[in-house]
Design brief:
By secondary structure, the protein is of the alpha+beta class. The protein folds into two domains: 111 residues, Rossmann fold (3-Layer(aba) Sandwich), CATH 3.40.50.10330; 159 residues, Tumour Suppressor Smad4 (Sandwich), CATH 2.60.200. Helix content is 28%, strand content 34%. The protein has nine helices and 18 strands. A six-stranded antiparallel beta sheet has the order 6-5-18-15-8-9, covered by helices on one side. It has a six-stranded antiparallel beta sheet with strand order 14-13-10-7-16-17. Strands 2-1-3-4 form a four-stranded parallel beta sheet, with helices on both faces. A hairpin with a 2-residue loop joins strand 5 and strand 6. Helix 2 runs parallel beside helix 3 and helix 6 crosses helix 8. The two termini are 34 Å apart.
């Protein structure tokens, strides 16, 4: 009687992530102990190669595991959307909002059990023009923070690194004027804008909540446009951002939509899941149920 072949998993990781290589090694050992084979397609530890690695992965690969943070997962999104393989997130970054949005455990053994269960769900993928994202796109302060905080500081301070860097860059930042156009209504103009966040799912940034009822499978994006007169006024409303009630503030414009375009007279970079990949103007859309995840 022929023995059933062992399932094969492609494990991707970011060696520069906070605990990327360490978590990947621990996870691979647990997979092998549980009866899985590990695919060894080249480029598995370099996010710049993830799309090619996924394209070249053999047909025997039945699932993908991504060890890293939200930026690492974003590097694999394009390839995952093409191959349509189910993916498991192994949190090893700084914010890990993707794992939080799905309620995934941190323990390696529990993650392996999830993989064995083959329990899948379909989640939405947002697009900034043609660039996919899973958690958040930011314009303003977040772009300044993400482009200036070093990997060394993130590994040392963890999530606190973003808060420290925010204080450093905010003193020299200038508010800007933004026009938000949505298919459902008239264009909105926001002045004295310090930050815009386009969020897919409930959690974003470092421990913040966009709304209490947002999910990764609601078919919409939540846009928060923050226009406090002074950037530091936002700290007095921090509890609203933690609880998901910031949209009730007069200084925050909240729009829920599946299709929006943002314009700005001055060129503004757009950070996509933590890395600057687009420039305003940008059209934001969402593709419902585009990604297979194990959760």
């Amino acid at each position: 009687m022929s023995q059933e072949p062992r399932p094969t998993v492609l494990v991707l990781w970011n060696a520069k992530a906070r605990h990327g290589a360490e978590r990947a090694s621990e996870f691979c050992h647990a997979l092998q102990d549980a009866g899985f084979d590990i695919d060894e397609t080249p480029g598995r530890d370099d996010p710049a190669c993830f799309s090619e690695t996924l394209r070249n992965a053999p047909q025997k690969v039945s699932a993908v595991a991504v060890c890293g943070g939200d930026g690492t997962l974003n590097s694999a999104l394009e390839g995952l959307l093409v191959r349509r393989l189910p993916v498991l997130f192994v949190a090893a970054g700084t914010a890990n909002n993707s794992a939080r949005n799905l309620g995934l455990p941190r323990e390696v053994d529990a993650l392996v059990e999830l993989l064995k269960s083959k329990r899948e769900r379909l989640v939405d993928v947002g697009f900034a023009n043609a660039t996919p994202f899973l958690t958040v796109c930011g314009i303003g302060l977040s772009t300044l923070v993400n482009t200036s905080v070093s990997g060394r500081v993130k590994r040392w301070l963890g999530p606190l690194a973003f808060l420290v860097q925010l204080f450093i860059v905010a003193w020299s930042s200038r508010p800007f004027r933004l026009q938000l156009s949505v298919v459902e209504g008239k264009p909105l103009e926001c002045r004295n804008v310090h930050q815009v966040s386009v969020v897919n799912g409930r959690y974003f940034a470092t421990g913040l909540t966009v709304t209490e009822d947002a999910t990764l499978d609601d078919g919409t994006l939540d846009i928060l446009c923050v226009h406090f007169r002074k950037w530091w006024h936002g700290f007095f409303s921090l509890t609203h951002f933690l609880r998901g009630t910031s949209g009730k503030l007069a200084e925050v414009t909240h729009v829920r939509t599946a299709d929006a375009t943002l314009f700005c007279r001055r060129g503004k970079g757009v950070d996509v899941d933590g890395d600057v990949k687009e420039q305003l103007p940008v059209r934001f859309t969402v593709k419902a149920g585009a990604l297979r995840v194990i959760a």
